[in-house]
Amino acid sequence: MIIVLKPGCTDSQREEFIKDLEETYGVSVNTWVGAQSTVLGLIGDTAAIDIDNIGANEIVDSVKRVQEPYKLANRKFHPDDTVIHLPGGLSIGGKQLALIAGPCSVESKPQITEIARRVKQGGAQFLRGGAYKPRTSPYAFQGLKEDGLELLQEAKAETGLPIVTELMSVRQIDLFLKAGVDIIQVGARNMQNFDLLRELGHLQTPILLKRGLSATIEELLMAAEYILAGGNQNVILCERGIRTYETYTRNTLDISAVPILKRLTHLPVVVDPSHAGGISWLVEPLAMAAVAAGADGLIIEVHNNPKKALSDGAQSLTPDQFDHVAARIKKAAPLFGRTL
């Protein structure tokens, strides 16, 4: 249920009204204070609440029920876009287009530091790199694990780029916090790992939540709801392609998910054109389409020698190719009200 308060409502009136709602109906109240209005989102069993009774209060402008199962992620509860702020004045959401780039896997110190330096020169504001790698085959390269986190820290110290890397288990959370990971990525296969999502809800570290291989848009938003319900409001959604009957590409980029998500939720949305297509020459057109569709950012795989990459070389750009793509994105971004 959503309650919109009248513009003249005072802070004391609002707090007294919220207290009465919580005590009378046993709900929790999420408050959003905007420039023009204040919105109260009631979380819990609201079936027994009489809308007419609530609407009769002198400070209430309007009341309506929310049918969608996701509440905190719902734009109706939070009309303005959420902007995730990070150290150094960086942000994801708003007018700034975020560019996250780096290798699928951290392989060595020379590899990650060289790529970090090059993607920063090309315009990336964040460094991605996998220290822990979920792989379909148990015999494939699984990442350098703790050593990979240390190498990411070293690359961050050298370039100043914040780190984006994937967490696979609740057991790794303390390790990631100790390593100073700036954005924790939840991979597609863990999107509905609800125990993990609950624990991440207790943090304040931004979470990059990737859409599952066969997940619906509502399922993605419900996964985000788990994190938000725990108290962590710093959630970034990622469209990375879904599994369809098409076999030419690795996945099928659901470009329509971007404007749909922007309509349904206040959370920022980034697109991963690398995993979506699985082919390096597809990254540029998919990235441009994502910007045009309204994405808040892009996450792109870059490797200094894709042919010898230990994972996902076929979809990785070389640093020179990344420079070209980033330059095109920078040129196109203002056409859609963005800056890079």
TrEMBL record:
Residue span, DAHP synthase ferredoxin-like domain: 1-68
UniProt keywords, alphabetically: Transferase
Originating organism: Caproicibacterium lactatifermentans
Gene3D superfamilies registered for this protein in UniProt: Aldolase class I, Phospho-2-dehydro-3-deoxyheptonate aldolase, domain 1
One GO MF term attached to the UniProt entry: aldehyde-lyase activity
One GO biological process term: aromatic amino acid family biosynthetic process
Start and end residues of each DAHP synthetase I/KDSA domain: 92-330
NCBIfam families, per the entry: DAHP_synth_Bsub (TIGR01361), PRK08673.1 (NF006421), PRK12595.1 (NF009239)
Highest taxon of the lineage: Bacteria
EC numbers for this chain: 2.5.1.54
Protein name: 3-deoxy-7-phosphoheptulonate synthase
